[in-house]
Amino acid sequence: MPDSHTTTHTHDTYQRLITLLDTSSVAYELIDHEPEGTTEAVSALRGHPTSEAAKCIVLRVKVDRRTTRHVLAVVPGDRRVDLDAVRALYAARYAGFSDAATAERLARAVPGTVLPFSFDPDLELVADPDVVAQPRLYFNAARLDRSLVISGEDYARVAEPRVERIASREGSALPPGPAH
């Protein structure tokens, strides 16, 4: 059972997203469904291919001994983050998955509900070009029981991600697990 802080945190993130979309005049659709956080399962519940889902993963990037950056990587749901591409993008020594507590704090959401938006200045947003090219982009809306769909074009306009090739090539999907 989530504690009240986590529940409040999630509610605030959801409200911030809806307010941002409303004030940005973005057409979006809300989809209520059974609570689910894995990309494959929630895509099935929503009735679309996993390639149309935004898989959002918080990464820790060690640029050098003293500099660590946190990156919210957004890739199509049927792909995995190419950690070597992220490492090269930042000319870093290391790129890997963030620990759960840091990811939750920076993304302001629990694993499985992380938005493809960053509301924290310490979390840099990078999206693969195949994400912003989607006519319909689906993602959990900071909740396990509600998703949102917007166009990739509107997503790029409002979220303003750095758009770089960070997804692995077709056919190398992540094993089943939580969509951060």
UniProtKB/TrEMBL annotation:
Residues 33-157 form the YbaK/aminoacyl-tRNA synthetase-associated domain. This is YbaK/EbsC family protein. Signal peptide: none annotated. It comes from the Bacteria. It holds the Pfam family tRNA_edit. It comes from Streptomyces xiangluensis.
